[in-house]
Design brief:
By secondary structure, the protein is an all-alpha fold. It contains 13 helices and no strands. Helices cover about 80% and strands about 0% of the residues. It holds the Pfam family EamA. InterPro entries: EamA_dom, EmrE-like.
């Protein structure tokens, strides 16, 4: 019971931390491209996670044979998925992007069915249809503000995150959550650094960019992802991603106050319906 409580609290805390990202990136990430900002986020996460790793080194373990699956999970998660997510925020706003991207939960369940043979429940199918209605309302509620490239980027993030979350379950067979999170972000940083080196130099002393990267990366990736993996390790994938159904609603609200976004009642309704679909699909 105690481990279950720790798992639930970890998932809820991660969800709350991630709710800050859409608004912060929407407001303060305008002066840097998506790939560069994502590299900086991963770099900050590496520093935070390495510090945690050193403080708790006696609790850390890793089986070297798992390095490939860790890298693949990193590619679909923080590398590709989050780059697309940032790109979508820049085109359609944080509130819209988070509402669409967090349908990754359904893709995670579909991938789990295909890879692990997990059962696809009728509630999951029902929740998926409800969430699709919500996504459509988000798309149509502010049609003038929705650009197709941003919508496709958000959908791509959902597809990619779904695979990343599914493979994270497998990666946790080879190491503890902190070590896996550290290796995932280290892989992302090393992969993106060669193609962002020149652009990073231009924004390296930009306080707004670095603070945004630290909060959404150092805290979001570093602490948030560690809590997320801890929850997966203790209460499983389905129960963990259930908690992230809060993120679209919180992200929408915080994006309004942090970035000054002005969503229509239709997009608010779409966000709530999407989160309701996620809740129904994973809880009932």
């Amino acid at each position: 019971m105690q481990m279950e409580v720790i798992g639930v609290l970890s998932a809820l805390t991660a969800s709350s931390i991630w709710s800050l990202s859409p608004g912060l990136i929407s407001r303060y990430g305008k002066g840097v491209d998506a790939i560069t900002l994502n590299m900086l986020r991963s770099l900050h996460a590496v520093f935070v996670l390495f510090f945690i790793f050193l403080l708790t080194i006696n609790d850390r373990w890793f089986v070297p044979e798992g390095i490939l699956i860790v890298y693949i999970s990193a590619f679909f998660g923080p590398l590709l998925g989050d780059t697309l997510y940032i790109h979508s925020i820049k085109h359609i706003g944080g509130g819209n992007a988070v509402s669409i991207s967090y349908t990754y939960i359904f893709f995670a369940q579909l991938y789990s069915y295909l890879l692990y043979g997990e059962q696809l429940r009728i509630q999951l199918i029902l929740g998926s249809f409800i969430a699709i209605i919500g996504v459509y309302l988000v798309y149509s509620g502010q049609r003038n503000d929705i650009k197709i490239i941003g919508f496709l980027a958000a959908l791509g993030a959902a597809l990619s995150w779904g695979m990343g979350a599914t493979l994270s379950k497998l990666a946790l067979n080879y190491g503890d959550p902190v070590t896996i999170a550290l290796l995932r972000n280290l892989s992302t940083t090393i992969s993106l650094l060669p193609i962002t080196y020149n652009s990073v130099k231009k924004v390296f002393l930009d306080k707004e960019v670095q603070i945004t990267a630290f909060i959404t990366g150092g805290i979001g990736f570093g602490i948030g992802m560690t809590l997320f993996l801890t929850a997966i390790n203790t209460i499983g994938v389905s129960a963990t991603v259930l908690a992230t159904s809060l993120t679209p609603v919180l992200g929408r609200i915080l994006a309004k106050y942090i970035a000054g976004e002005k969503p229509s009642p239709k997009t608010y309704l779409g966000t709530i319906i999407t989160s309701t679909g996620i809740f129904i699909g994973l809880y009932f």
